[in-house]
Amino acid sequence: MAASHGAGMMGAAATSDYGSSNTSLDRAGDEQEDGSNFEYGLDDVDEDASGPGDMKPTIVLMGQKRSGKTSIRKVVFQKMSPNETLFVESTARVTSESVTSSFINFETIEFPGQMSPFDAALDPVSTFTRCGALLFVLDAQDDYTEALKRMHEYFVKAYRINSNIKFEVFVHKVDGLGEDIKMDTQRDIFQRVQDDLADAGMEQIHINFHMTSIYDHSIFEAFSKVVQKLIRQLAALERLLDIFNQGSNVEKAFLFDVASKIYVATDTSPVDMATYELCCDMIDVTIDISSIYGSRDEPVAPFDANSSAVIRLSTQQVLFLRQVNRYLALVCIVRAENYEKQGLIDYNFQCFKRAIEKVFEVRKKMLLAGTRCKVDRLRLDDSGSSESRQGLPPPAARS
Ligand SMILES: Nc1nc2c(ncn2[C@@H]2O[C@H](COP(=O)(O)OP(=O)(O)OP(=O)(O)O)[C@@H](O)[C@H]2O)c(=O)[nH]1
Ligand SMILES: [Mg+2]
């Protein structure tokens, strides 16, 4: 895996909604206003730089005992195989872990099932003030009546401390349920949660539900969606991916955090689970082959800023991976005949890469300068000349 780095995080927890997929690129500049400033693992970030406040986006995990919180953390961030989680011990105390070697340096805090996170001794005000997302894990294979009561109580208390928290429910261990029961369970949980909120007059709490299991890719997909909400530049990234796809005739593109296989962004076409799994598998294959055959002498990271890979599928499609920087890779699926114009794809990729750097650089510069100035425009290329935009359609966001 890539060498870990100490780039710090800045700012408070995410504080406002993210724009829809068709939000303009200009939005990235506007978002500066709300003071939610996290720093990301960009290549040119000073390794030791710790920003003012040095705060990381925090994801708090809660749920009944044995619901699967530790297993989720281990599988997603420590590459533990799902079967090994059978031997994971019950967590005895509040466990906080920083996710490093990753594009997004966030922190996870797990509260053991037997402990109330709102115990005054645990300083809940401080924890939930910096909490970006509150993730409640429900064991779908167990009776969840008691868990739902707890969840309702915790969500309401957390909301009163910080109304900007993203509330997420993982209806977990669905691997043990048949398709029909899965749907019924989801509907039942959703209905009960909404009823409880309505009874308490707290309908303003917006909750997202995800069906998850550590035995397939659903846990990575769900975690991706949670993490994406902590990325302020999401709308700009989605727009850039759309533009790249249009210009290169790519069917689907994911911007992956390679170390965790979380996708930081994807284009605005719907995510098909099979395509996502294929792209995840490509990352695994690339890293495995690179680890085994990549270096003869000294051990080096299995991927770096210059990594790339191409896999041709029997379905007349091509999967290709291009590293954007040390942490991020673009993984795309394209029809074989469209991959023949490789020069165009290469050129568009370079434009895309520069644009990504700009999206994050603008914010970084502003943070470093400590200014709250407004950015008028984010442009796809350095010069803005028509020549340098060849291959990419003009960004619709620009007027
Ligand atoms: N079938 C299935 N089992 C799972 C899944 N996720 C976790 N488990 C199992 O659930 C059990 C409990 O997992 P833990 O991760 O220790 O649960 P926890 O929520 O951290 O529990 P505490 O630390 O006691 O609060 C383990 O035996 C896991 O193997 C899943 O997606 N499917
Ligand atoms: Mg645990």
Automatic annotation (TrEMBL):
It is found in: Endomembrane system. GO terms for cellular component: endomembrane system; Gtr1-Gtr2 GTPase complex; lysosome; nucleus. The keyword Lipid biosynthesis does not apply. Keywords: GTP-binding, Hydrolase, Membrane, Nucleotide-binding. Residues 31-49 have a biased composition (Acidic residues). Its main location: membrane. It holds the Pfam family Gtr1_RagA. Residues 1-53 are annotated as: Disordered. SUPFAM superfamilies: P-loop containing nucleoside triphosphate hydrolases. GO terms for biological process: cellular response to starvation; negative regulation of autophagy; positive regulation of TORC1 signaling. GO terms for molecular function: GTP binding; GTPase activity. Gene3D superfamilies: 3.30.450.190, P-loop containing nucleotide triphosphate hydrolases. It catalyses: GTP + H2O = GDP + phosphate + H(+). Residues 1-14 have a biased composition (Low complexity). Belongs to the GTR/RAG GTP-binding protein family. This is Ras-related GTP-binding protein.
